[in-house]
């Protein structure tokens, strides 16, 4: 499975998981995992995720449960391509929907926005 697909599935899993999370302040949002270029670190009602790609790219994000069942995620990812250009994506997902800014090489691409209803539908 490609890193992008794994990352997308992980994001959907985390959104679905947190929508059913209890309001207990001692609740740990995610388990700690540190294995072979994959780090998932819980921090109270937050988490830090880093996935290193063997081709030199990575994904890094932080998530915070801002209210019971509401997750705010900030992240960035990079992907190296054979033409020596790098795709960089900076994103935010939360109660206001999903927004991403793409840069390929030195060119900024269109900012994408998905409304909250799309995220709710995708998470189940």
Description:
Residues 1-23 form the signal peptide. Keywords: Signal. The protein has one domain (3-123). 20% of the residues lie in helices and 48% in strands. With 124 residues, the chain is α+β, with helices and mostly antiparallel strands. The protein has helices at 3-19, 116-123; strands at residues 33-35, 38-43, 46-52, 58-67, 70-80, 86-94, 97-104, 107-108, 112-114. It starts with a helix and ends with a helix. Strands 1, 2, 3, 4, 5, 6, 7, 8 and 9 form a nine-stranded antiparallel beta sheet that branches.
Largest sheet geometry:
9 strands, antiparallel
Percent range of helical residues: 10-25%
Give the SSE string.
HEEEEEEEEEH
Kindly report the average pLDDT value: 77
Quote the distance from N terminus to C terminus.
22 Å
Label the structural class. Answer: alpha+beta
Using only CA atoms, what is the Rg? 15 Å
